[in-house]
Amino acid sequence: MTEQALFYLVYDILLALLAPFIFLYQFYRSLKRGRGVSGFAERFGLIDAERLAPLGGREVIWIHAVSVGETQAAKPLLKALKDRFPGMRLVLSTVTETGREVAEKIAEVDLCIYFPFDHGFAVRGALRRIKPSLVVIVETEIWPNFIRYARKGGAPVVLANGRISDRSFPRYLKLKGLFGPVLAGVDAFCMQSAEDARRISAIGAPQERVFAAGNLKYDIAARILSVQERNAARNRYLIPPGMPVVVAASTHPGEEEAVIAAYRTLLAEGRSLFLILVPRHPERAGAVSELLSRAGFPHGLRSRLSDRSATFGPGEVLIVDTIGELMALYGAADLAFVGGSLVPVGGHNILEPASLGLAMVFGPHMHNFRESAALILERGGALQISEKGELAAALRALLEDAEKRGEIGRRGASILEENSGATARHIGVISDLQRARSQDEE
Known about the structure:
The chain is of the alpha/beta class. Helices cover 47% and strands 14% of the residues. The two termini are 34 Å apart.
């Protein structure tokens, strides 16, 4: 038995042992989160024939993006794929419910599904129904059976916008012997940076298939909003024009407390100020509401704005318990704090506020966005603080100096303009694979 065959045998045995627990957990999760029977079935490769109707028997590109962040990052690529291959249908799979909600709003996507578990029967069932001509996996979602059976079905597999984080790289290196057989099944690795390319090669990716293609997230169109556009965004959220607005985006437990403390400090100084709090996981809105109630701050939920008759006032807080609105919320703000950075999560997307020319603050834990954070800080496009107690001072410095705030925002936006082009490089790699596949079939 070859090393590769042994790997897959052991892997399938482990999955079989875990299957009863996975089945019960997913059944519970599907009921709790409202996926319904069809969503539950899709995790096991069962896709209703009626849902496949939009594919119309055409060739399919299957793109997989695990959650919201990956789905947002994939948007420029999805548009480019539709433009480059207009006769092909695009299927977008996600794992999370929030990712699915974002995916269903993308015009270029013909069908959204939940990604199947990596059990052989589930993967084979999904691939048999979708029949992809190409598979694109966004970021580093390495599923051995999915990759193996996609290749067996004749579909080239591309890793898009790939990255290997500082935290995961040592673990991958230790398991290099296991990853080798899996990575051998990927036809092209489009990595975010030269360092990511080096790392994926070090853990077993064939070097001739590895490309430093750039970060798709830089391909957001950079645009400084006018005063009129910001006021229109504020009207949408019942925020009076002219009031300074801070958005705390993608926050995690431990960060909301720091944001609330900083807000209290700034208000105590006599400032007219409004806070928008956007927890990373919308289901935590209730917990955030309790924090604000205990701190004595009046607040409202985004999902209930239609029930509100009056605009917000200074010292109030809007809790965002919806998804897919973060860019619109950035458009309503004067400055931003980007979460996941004051606690050891690794940070969240700092390029989105930069694309709108919004000055921002983030904490020390930015290892998931090390390249973007380093570049933005080098160019003066953000302020970084080292601990929670510095948040009020950083926000104060930006609130008190509109000229500095504007300059930081402009520098951030210029970085996106100068570093765009990742989508074109990805499409170049994918087009070469498709050409080679067509020649092989002739």
